[in-house]
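Reading a protein record of the kind used here takes little practice once its layout is understood. An example of such a record is reproduced below.
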Amino acid sequence: MKLGSDIKQAIESLALDKGVTVDSMYEALVSAFRSAYMRIEGAAEEARVTLDPDSGDVTVYAQELDNEGNVLKEWEADINDNDFGRIAAQSFKQMMTTKVRDAKRATVLEAYIGREGELITGIVTQFDSRFNQTIIDLQDAEAVIPSSERIPFERLERGNRIKALITEVREDAKGIPIIISRNRPEFIQRMLELEVPELNDGTIELRAIAREAGSRTKIAVFSNDPNVDPKGACVGSRGSRVRQIVNELKGEKLDVVEWREDKVRFIIEALGPADIELVEIDEHTKSAKVTVKDNQLSLAIGKEGQNARLAAKLTGYKIDIQGLGDSPKVEEVQEETKQEEE
């Protein structure tokens, strides 16, 4: 059997078009010929196929095996079955599809392995209801956002351009190997680094972050330069930097607070925008008793307790908020705390 020059040229063009090697295409063709032979009537129990790419010669060798699988006898098969060519073509098409898929997968893995934690941009292409995930086109690859990694109640419509965080690149996954997220706190951090140069050059540090995706996020930042206001740098002129992030998050609120070494001051910052009258800290239980004026109570606690809950996550203290009583003022408690530390 001999491959014509037109078939050889078609194989080489197909390999170039699909982004696979010519050798892998010839391997698929050899496997297809073997598969086709094994399916014709009267075929031997085993066979091997050789193909010379230069001459185009294809030879099918029928084999007789012993009980242990060793070759006892081998001869050139006489192929005159009318279905052989059709079967070989079908097998080749299937194997070619597998080769192309494997080649694309290898290319994707090479480009994205080790990039977990990076921010990427893509376009929403479809929602896969079978696996409850959204497929995102990254131009050179595809990624998926599982339902568990989406922002709650967010509508990701086809054609939307979005940013997301690479969370995992699965080498052994059968489907799309790149997993991305929009609901993790790290996503906000990467977005901030994109908008705030001072976070990248070390002038400002992001010390803590607390997020309830789709609703509100609080971040605590610290400046290593006394001449740079960390909150102002993150918010930007007239809120321009924060606005870019809020737009990407479809309205999720973003509070920027200044990280303080003084835990009392830090808790006061974290509970903003409420005005705090008093903070009493118990370091043994990692808890804080916070007192506010009655007209600030609902603001400090927040809707359904969200402001207090995020402040607790941000500071690491369990926070109990109550209305104003006969407790000493904040300045007095701070002075007492300093004396105890000394």
Observations:
- The radius of gyration is 33 Å.
- The chain has a mean pLDDT of 87.
- The chain has four domains: 5-106, 119-181, 184-259, 261-342.
